[in-house]
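Page 47, continued from p. 46.
Same chain as before, 390 aa.
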Amino acid sequence: MNVIYTDNNATTKVDDQVIEEMTPYFGELYGNPSSMHTFGDNVGKKVKQARQRVANLINADPDEIVFTSCGTESDNAAIHAAINAFPERKHIITSTVEHPAIKNLYSHLAAKQGYEVTFVPVDRKGRLNTQLLYESMSENTALISLMWANNETGVIFPIEEVAKRANEKGILFHTDAVQAAGKLDIDVKKAGVDMLSLSGHKIHAPKGIGVLYVKKGFKFTPYLIGGHQEGGRRGGTENTAFIIGLGKACELARENLSVMNSQVGELRDYLQSRLLEKIAGTSVNGELDNRLPNTLSIGFDAVEGESILLLLDRDGICASSGSACTSGSLDPSHVLMAMEVPFKSAHGTIRFSLSHYNTKDEMDLIVKTMVPTIEKLRAMSPFWKDGKMI
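Result:
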């Protein structure tokens, strides 16, 4: 069975060029990049090249790049560094639709360390209530952390605008750009962010490698304390092959940014229009004009998302009912609940997230499969009768 993979916001295929770049560093080029000898130093030069490639993707300086194990570690390291920088401040701000790496850590800080947390709501289209956010800022606020783009709906937040307001108030600003990197043109200097997280496996690099951008001048407290690696900001021997692979992936992502925003965006729009045309009782979640070009969150009334996924899986179609980090729950995702998406649609929501590997023929096959799948499930649903929701 040929697999049609449309779950790229969960993880991506490692690009063949990335694998090729990494392979020598699993075998003959195994030196420690921190060693003094030439054998290790040659590896260290390749790590330096990777650092520059990552920096180029987000318009940072190479020495502002800290390699981590994943996006979650980057998020956690950023938040702990921020609250350590302002130990006297006990207020932090985020949104109600953040990834669990942010949302759950903020909840932990509130429950265990006495922090006051403002979870800023979003509206029905997933747009941030910036007015409430600005009203929540105070002299006691240590940090604002917001995702650049939502992993489920693709809705993009006004990062540059909020970062500017935070800077004016002397509040640190961190953004989780895990979903945005490689899909949007990111410029950390223009955006004015203090810290930014990204993850390799979202941009066709391997799982197990991430990045935290730390703005020059910020007194960063290391999350992992150990050796001198990463300029003393993250202890532990460098994950050499994965760092090199991430560097290549960032170079490719930069080159392919126009493809993402044209070719992939057109495929997403084609899939969306065909599903809306062919299947009644269907609605798209999130703001249509301000979202990632690859992401489609679409709800089907009167059916269960998990049942849709099981039937799609039988035909080799990979999609998601929301974030991979929360897919073990049968409840609608916290993102859709925060958006107050009607229960009838939220429970039947599927997320299709595309990449440049997808084709128009695949989109046609998805639609061809989805039509009888929804018909079959609605025939068994007590909430669907005579072609409409009851």
